[in-house]
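Exercise 7.
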Amino acid sequence: MLALFARRPCHSRLLSLRYLASEAVSTTTAEAGSPASADEASTSAEIKPATGLVREPAWWHDTTVDATRAYRIIMNRFRVHGSQREENYRQLVSRVKTPHDAGLALTILDQGRTARAVLQQHTPYTFHTSQMFIEKCVAVKAFDTALEALQRAQEIGLQFFRGGAYFAVMKGAVVNKQLDIAIKVFEAMKENGVRPGGKVVHSLIMGSIINGRRDLAEAYAEEFRYNGVKINKASEEWLEGIRTPDEGKDELGTPQDADSGGAPSGEQEKTAAVTSA
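Solution. The predicted structure, written as tokens, is:
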């Protein structure tokens, strides 16, 4: 009896083995057939850095992951984990190569802000992340996306130090014959309480003239004078007709020339967070 009993398989064990076998088959089938499986695998796969305790997702170091795939990975992480580390967003921004990519990055930044709000986390994005996004938009000529980011800066949680980001978008738009974008950027500056500096004033005046809108340049000059905003000598020469559009190709300078002069220090970040939107 004992020998016979020993040979009889346990019924519950058979069920467990069958369940495990079926799970293995279904998992293999899903991995082979689902187009999102690669992104989900990238989401969970992590590598341990040489120092520190923070584990970095493997896709950060995968050069084959473009902006579209990074977007899908982060969206999947939102569904699974909720709010993400800010470096995930920077990794996507660093992969922006087209205006479409810039739009995906802005969507992720917006979603990230929402995910933070759910957890009652209202800290805005860093100046570094915010400026990095604007610079990428300008580089790929996604001026409409950059404009939306500036207009919705407070809502999304982006913050910029004085007028540097606004000038960067304004300059790019003017040079690329998109004066309407430059005008809207200036309106966003005013709505966000950012006072224009010399470079912004010059880009609006010169940009209006080289785009065939001298009347607009004169209207801006009148507005600046009324509000006590200084108009530099070069801008005055444009208004007086001393300078011509052929001379304006390289005259706007660089974004770093705008009021900020560079990235803010830690103390400056604290005081500029509200006034710089």
